[in-house]
Structure formats: structure tokens, C-alpha cells
Amino acid sequence: MLLQLIVILATTRVFAWLARRVGQAEVVGEMLAGIALGPSLLGYFAPDVFSYVFVAGNGPAFTAIAQLGLILLMFQIGLDFELSAVSTAKRTVVLVSVLGIVVPFGLGAATSLYFYNQLLEPRPPTTSFVLIFAVSMSITALPVLGRIFAETGLARHRAGVIAITAAAINDVIGWLLLGVVSLLIAGSFSVGWVAVRALGILALCGVAFYLVRPLVHRFIDRHVARHGRLEHSGISVVLVLLFACALVTSELGLHALIGGFILGVALHQHVPLVAEWKARISPLVNTLLLPIFFAHTGLRTDVGTLGGGAELLQTALICGIAFLGKYGGAYLGARLAGEPHRISHVLAVCMNTRGLMELVVLNVGYDLGILPRSLFTQLVYMAMITTLIATPLIRRYMRTAPVETV
Predict the structure, then answer these.
(1) What is the tens place of the pLDDT at every residue in 116-130?
(2) Longest CA pairwise span in the chain (Å)
(3) Which of 68, 181, 312, 337 has its CA 20 to 30 A from that of 367?
(4) Closest among 308, 314, 261 to 73, alpha carbons compared
(5) Hey, CA dihedral for 310, 311, 312, 315, is it positive or negative?
(6) CB 181 within 8 A of CB 132
(7) What global pTM score does this model have?
(8) How many CA atoms lie within 13 A of 314 on its CB side?
(9) pLDDT digits (tens, 9 = 90+) for 317-366
(10) For the chain, how many structural domains are there in total?
């Protein structure tokens, strides 16, 4: 395990540096590092090294660390959740966010049966596959967008503020969709089973927002006033609540990461807590646990499972459908809101960035047994390609874009 951590962290920093050198965001390099360490590259070109480093016996422990990282990451994303102050572009934000998820979801559902028919027996349930495939076409990577904007300067522009706000709304809708789909699949589409779990989720949200939030706010305020910062005892209290929420959603049939996201959103307005988390916990999540998650995804991604040219063409088709649905929906929404072509284009490019969030959805689909490994691999490459496209197009826009406030 120690050797694995050394290899993962060193490779991640090298790929992040290379990504920055070629004009990509560092997170793109981190994602590529995960793929490079998997059977697609390291396992293909140096199988003996691959089998020595990633010993099969360490699989359960490695998976557990990756899942822990996901829970902490989703809590962190919840803490970062904020709808930017958009005073003159509310119509654009609403139309871009709604059409940016409705159009790709519909296109994904409409085309999913073709990909379903290409699967080998035994196949997953048809409805479950259609829903997971449609959700995978609909996700926008809010954390990746935030890092791309920070590195390109788009956050200071009108298009950037609109895009990040629309992406935040899009993410909330996307996580709700994933939660509903996960419940339906786990309950075998039993209305009674799903209804009971849905009430449980609503109860958890009520407890998180109306009971836990005020208590945590008071506790953190007193704790910081006494110690000047969030001490170990305060961090432990937050972690206990976080893992409790994750446990509840896991027991209800949802992925544990949903519980982390719910608590993060509930606490995101408490400025001292958010600041302390970003200063003391976030660096560990971003530099250790996130690379482990990317490596975990990379170990599941094997280009060798693709059956030759036909499946490579299928991967290209998936990329085309994903780009067309997301780009087309966001562009249509911006144009209907009265935005000029150039702004509409950059908004559509931003919303088409999938990155980390897409990998989360794909791993959930894989864990549920809905996405077989070959299709999982194709969808991972789709997530990588759509994210790779975004940064150079945004940089091209930034070279001539005037700074506009919203």
C-alpha cells in the first residue's frame, strides 16, 4: 500500500505539471495520471510492474480509501456550493442550466437502447441501464470548472459567472437525478420501497438543515472564539456528523457520498467552518485522497476490454452524443435567453466539461452493476475527452474577450 501511494502521488504531480505546461488545467493531468496507472497504459506496457505495484490483495483496502475520499470530497463540494450573484442574467442561467441537463438526458435516454443491445449477456435491467446512461450524459463538473476558471481568469468575466452559476444548479439537479435513479435501481422499481427511502432522505435533509446546522454553527462559533481556529476536537465533531450522514444515505440505498453532499450544502454558509476546512482539510483531500480516487477509476478502466475497431468507433459515437447533447442544450438555452453567439458558445463549452463529477457517476453505475467494464471504459474516455476540449477553447475565448461584469 505504501508503494502504491508513492507511485500514485508522484505520477499525479508529474502529470499535473505536464498538463499545466501544455495549457491544460492541473486537474486534467490528475485524471490522466489515474488512467496511466491502470491496465490501459502501465498494465499494457509494463504488466510485471503493474502487478507488482497494484497487488490484487490490496484491492479492498484501496477501494475503501477511495470511497472515504469521495465522501470527504462531496462534503467539500457541498461546502463550496454557492449561487453567484447574477443580477442581469437570471433568464440565461435558468435556461442554460435546465436545457443543459434536459437535452442531454433526453438524447442519452433515446440513444441508450442502441448501446444496450451491443452489450454481452448477461445484461443489466433495461430501465436501470437507460437511466444511468442518460444521467452520465447530463453531468457538468463544477469543481473542474472552478479550477479551470481560476487558471484561465474566466471567473472575472460575465460568461464565467453565468457558467459557474448554471453549473451549480445543473449539479444539484444531476445529484437529485442520480439519487432518484439509485433508489429506483436499489429498490427494483418498487414504489413502496422507494417511497419509504425517499421519505428517509427528506427527513435527513430536514435534520441536517434545521437541527444540525444551527447546532454546528453555535458550536463552531464558540469553538473558534475560544481557540482562534478549528482544533482537533472541532474537526472530529464535524467528521462524526459527516460520516453519520453518509451512513444514513448508504443504509437508505443511496451511495454514501450523497450524505456527504447534503451535510456540506447544509453547512456551506458558515464562513469560519468553510475557511478552516479549506485551510486544514482540503489540501489533504486534494493531494492524497483525490489522486487515489482517480487511480481507483483508472484501475477499472481497461482499453483492453474494448473489442477492437468496432468498440473504438462506439467510443467515438458516445463522445459525439455526449458533446452534442450537452453543448446543444446549453447553447440553445443561451440563445433563447438572447445571448450572442460568442457568449452562447463559451457557455456551452463550459457546461460540456464533465471531469470529476462524471467519474463519480460512472463509478456509482459500475458499483451498482449497471455499467459493464467495457462500457465503463468507453464512458471514462468520453469524460476525459470532453474535459480536455474545454480548456483550450476557453483560453481561445479569453484572448479576445472583454471583461464584462454581471
Answers:
(1) 998 887 888 888 899
(2) 64
(3) 312
(4) 261
(5) positive
(6) yes
(7) 0.80
(8) 23
(9) 999 999 999 999 999 999 999 888 888 998 899 888 887 778 888 888 88
(10) 1
pLDDT of 231-281, one tens digit each?
888 889 999 999 999 999 888 877 788 888 889 889 988 888 888 888 888
Residue 140 lies in a domain: yes
Domain span at 182: 82-280+306-391
Across the chain, mean pLDDT equals 85
Q: How many CB atoms lie within 10 A of CB 101?
A: 29
Give me the CATH number covering residue 142.
Answer: 1.20.1530.20
Please compute the mean of the pLDDT values over residues 92-102 and round it to a whole number: 90
Domain contains 18: no
24 domain residue, yes or no: no
